[in-house]
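Tutorial handout. Part one gives the primary structure; part two gives the three-dimensional structure as C-alpha cells.
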Amino acid sequence: MKTMRTTNSGLLIGAILLLIGFGALVQWESAWSALFVCGLIAWAVAFKKDSLQVLSFPKKIWMIPLSVILYFVVGLLIGVLSGMAGMEWAANPVSGHLGQIIFIMPFMLMGEELLGIGILEGARSKGLSMWTSTLLSAVVFGLMHIPSYWDGSFVSTLLHVLLLQGVARVIFNYLYIKTGRSIWGSWIAHVIVDLIALSL
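Part two.
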C-alpha cells in the first residue's frame, strides 16, 4: 500500500489544527464545526496533494454494514463483561436527544474521521507499521472521548473509552483500508453506528 507523503512540519501544524478543533468542540457545544473545519485544513496542510486520495468512492461497500454489526457485537460483549466486573459506564450525554444534533452529527463525525485516519496515515508516513499506526490512532481516538463519557472514575472512564471508542476506531480504520483507503467508507459506518447508538 502506498504511504501518503508528508513532512514533519506539515504533521505538526496538522496536529495543532486538530487539537484546536477538538479543544473548541469540547469547550463550546456551539463550536460543533470546529473539528470538521480544522480537520479539513489539517489534512490539506499535512498531506497536500495526497490528501485527495481519501475522497475516492469506497470499494467493497458490502463491508460497511458488516463493520457496523461487528462493532455492536463487540460492544455488547464488552458491555456484558464490564457489567460483570461491576462497572457502570456513563452513556453519551446526547443519547436520546438525536433530534437535536441530527443535522450537525455528520460533520462532527467527519471531523473525527479526519482526526483518526489522519493519525493512522501520519504514523504510516513516518514508517510505523499498519498495526502500530492503528493502535496509536485507536488510543488517541479513545482518549479524546473521555470528556463525553466521564463517569467520575478515571480507571472506569479510561477502560470505557479505550475498549469501546478505541475498538470502534480499529474497526473504522480497518474498514477505511479495506474500502480502498476511502474516508467515505469509515465515515458512513461511523454515522450509522452513532445514529443507532444515540437513538437508543
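Part three, for discussion. Residues 78 and 84 are 10 Å apart (CA to CA). The chain has a mean pLDDT of 90.
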